[in-house]
Design a protein that fits this description.
Length: 145
Amino acid sequence: MNKEICTCTPLRRLTRKMTLLYDHHLQPNELTITQYSLISRIGRRGPIANITLAADMGMDRSTLSRALKPLTTAGWIETVDLPEEELLDKRSFALQLTAAGRIKLEEARPNWRRAQDEIDRQLGPKLSREIMDVIQDAYSRLQDL
């Protein structure tokens, strides 16, 4: 492989393009794709420990805290105590959707689906599936970094 080729640059260019598409579709819901992903994950897994959520999202704890702040301020996410046996450290706590957060997620889901359908339509089902497989494989191989 040519040592002058950077894997990160084209991958980031692709993710920026996809992010713009998702953000465009989620704009009526006043959400970004990152925010939608957070409320969706918390909705599926909540209450979920902040440390577990950060790991699931591939974020460090401080990045997660910054991303959660507007969602908490909007009243869509709340913190709750973890059972003592689940405490990972003194800074761990759980997150869950509020009733307003569940409503926000349900309102935004059709727009997320439209974005996903547009990507699938433009890429085609074969390429969409191949990209997901490659992403999953690459991410699992880089877990130790």
